[in-house]
């Protein structure tokens, strides 16, 4: 099924959830522009998620989704909020949505896991999910091992549900390529870091605008938690610690709270500025509407 029909949206585009970043301002801007805005729930309790959802609803009447990072320890209470607020869809990461699937689906909420490989895609299809996002390792944030170009066609061949391509998509050529690979839609993260409405520090946006094609690195490879972000004093420090095989617990201490330092404080020394390889193509701050319309208008 076409994801525009599945999700009742104008363009086959999902705004990738971004931890601590994709709050109500960006979500409503994307949904108003005809894509599917996705609200992060990372670091939120039930009351804060509820407040963010209410804010989105005052800013748009269009459908939007909530993202659940499943390793968080308060998922059951967040699921209750999502069900009571009758959200259109949930995207999930970092685990299986199996324990919550029935409750969400019975409430009419579409469930769309983000997956890094064919084997998990097949498991998700068996669970009964509505679509999967196949996310390549050029993406920003937590990543798998396979590139978008290799992953998407393999997932498309392996399942009979819609596959949404993610990782390295920021313009109409990449959307066209995704459709040729068999995808039914795209999920875009990094390009929205530079949206006018995105509530992050000016330092973070400027680092995205200044990035070149080779300015991201992957930290956490040695302790099996790979995360892609812009090169920074913190990534230099962490990579040096990894090279010296320092205890991962000590490295994780450096990383704890680092995303918040980037997002809220613009702390260039200590912040973690997660972004994907496509950051090298993002040179201007634009409204979410401009970003989406440039991707989809024909000329
Ligand atoms: C700063 C940042 C934070 C992210 N946080 C999350 C998250 O909390 N949950 C999630 O499912 N995906 C997360 N992602 C992945 C995006 O939702 C999306 O799949 C990815 O950005 C797509 O690739 P792109 O960055 O090349 O556009 C994050 C990505 C970025 C850049």
Write the layout of secondary structure elements.
Blueprint lengths: L2 H5 L5 E3 L8 H9 L4 E3 L6 H14 L4 E6 L5 H10 L4 E5 L4 H9 L3 E6 L2 H10 L4 E4 L5 E2 L5 H11 L4 E4 L5 H9 L4 E4 L1 H4 L8 H9 L5 E4 L7 E4 L2 H11 L4 H8 L2 H6 L24 H9 L3
Parallel strand pairs: 1-9, 2-3, 3-4, 4-5, 5-6, 6-8, 8-9
Antiparallel strand pairs: 7-11, 10-11
Helix pairs in contact: 2-3, 11-12
The protein binds flavin mononucleotide (FMN).
CATH class of the largest domain: Alpha Beta
- How would you sum up the major sheet? 8 strands, parallel
Fourth-level CATH superfamily of the largest domain = Aldolase class I
Radius of gyration using CA atoms only = 18 Å
Strand tally is 11
How far apart are the termini? 26 Å
β content, as a range?
A: 15-25%
- Rounded mean pLDDT is 96
Could you tell me which ligands this complex binds, including any ions or cofactors? flavin mononucleotide
Count of domain modules: 2
Compressed to H and E, one letter per element, the order equals HEHEHEHEHEHEEHEHEHHEEHHHH
Number of helices: 14
Low-pLDDT stretches: none
In CATH, the architecture of the largest domain is Alpha-Beta Barrel
Secondary-structure class = alpha/beta
Main-sheet strand order equals 1-9-8-6-5-4-3-2
């Amino acid at each position: 099924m076409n994801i525009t029909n599945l999700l009742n949206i104008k363009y086959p585009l999902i705004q990738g959830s971004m931890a601590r970043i994709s709050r109500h301002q960006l979500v409503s801007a994307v949904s108003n522009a005809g894509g599917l805005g996705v609200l992060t729930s990372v670091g939120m309790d039930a009351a804060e998620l509820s407040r963010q959802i209410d804010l989105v609803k005052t800013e748009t009447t269009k459908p939007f989704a909530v993202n659940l990072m499943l390793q968080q320890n308060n998922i059951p209470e967040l699921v209750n909020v999502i069900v009571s607020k009758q959200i259109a869809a949930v995207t999930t990461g970092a685990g299986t949505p199996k324990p919550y699937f029935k409750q969400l689906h019975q409430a009419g909420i579409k469930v769309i896991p983000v997956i890094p490989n064919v084997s998990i895609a097949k498991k998700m299809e068996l669970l009964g999910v509505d679509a999967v996002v196949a996310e390549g390792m050029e993406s920003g944030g937590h990543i798998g091992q396979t590139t978008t170009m290799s992953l998407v066609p393999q997932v498309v061949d392996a399942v009979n549900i819609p596959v949404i391509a993610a990782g390295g998509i920021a313009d109409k050529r990449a959307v066209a390529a995704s459709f040729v690979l068999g995808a039914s839609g795209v999920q875009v993260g990094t390009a929205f870091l530079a949206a006018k409405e995105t509530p992050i520090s000016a330092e973070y946006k400027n680092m995205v605008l200044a990035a070149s094609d080779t300015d991201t690195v992957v930290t956490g490879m040695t302790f099996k938690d790979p995360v892609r972000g812009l090169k920074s004093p913190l990534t230099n420090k962490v990579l040096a610690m990894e090279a010296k095989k320092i205890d991962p617990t000590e490295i994780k201490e450096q990383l704890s709270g680092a995303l918040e330092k980037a997002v809220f404080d613009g702390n260039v020394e200590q912040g973690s500025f997660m972004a994907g390889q496509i950051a090298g193509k993002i040179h201007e701050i634009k409204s979410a509407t401009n970003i989406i319309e440039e991707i989809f208008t024909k000329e």
